[in-house]
Amino acid sequence: MNKIFIFIILLITVKSMSQNLNEIRYFDNQTELNGLITSNTEKNKPAVLILPAWMGIDNEAKKAALDLANRGYLAMIADIYGKGNIPTNIDEARKITTFYKSDYKAYQNRIQIALETLIADGANPDKIVIIGYCFGGTGALEAARGNLNVKGVVSIHGNLTDGLNRNNTIKPQILIENGADDEMVTQEDILNFMKEMKQTEAVWQFNNYGNCKHTFTNPDSKDYNEKMSKKSWLDTVEFIDNLIK
Questions:
Q1: CA end-to-end distance (rounded Å), the chain
Q2: Cα separation of 20 and 70, whole Å?
């Protein structure tokens, strides 16, 4: 009887530690947005907003959300594109991401709406970090440039784009996680980014991961580097913990 009782307690404990992802619908005026949010929606929790790569919500973003939930964070994966606008191929993805990279204010606006939704569903508004992958990494950096009300951002193999002479200050702390062999990020991009950080007196860190190409953290990519992917995730979690845990 005692063994059965202990087994039931362990089963309940394991179940309580696991999290699910639930659909969350929200709006930008008339545009319907469909994200995912972890099931631990108690009030006033430290939280992480995840911006997915250019094909939209994928397995990498889902895995990150669930891992963060099991670490005690509320996590939401944003929908940037909106219902009916999810790309089905690379050409469609390139077209829609080019729009948001060109109109960074529209990108910042969609991120802001996701933040408001996350707060409405239980996030502590003073304890939020944004992380993003690829196109989402570009968005995370744009969130910092827009001085959205978050403690910090993590750009995971995102494009650095050009933010020179745009801001006097950047308030959120910044962690850039870059593949050292990423052909999409040039040395000029990196130098301009560093100039921007100096201009804005930002608190920032740039991690270059050796022997890594663009999508080195994604197990579904040919560029996947398992060792460095695990290392970069530990760096991400440490950054988040230091800011909002």
A1: 40
A2: 10
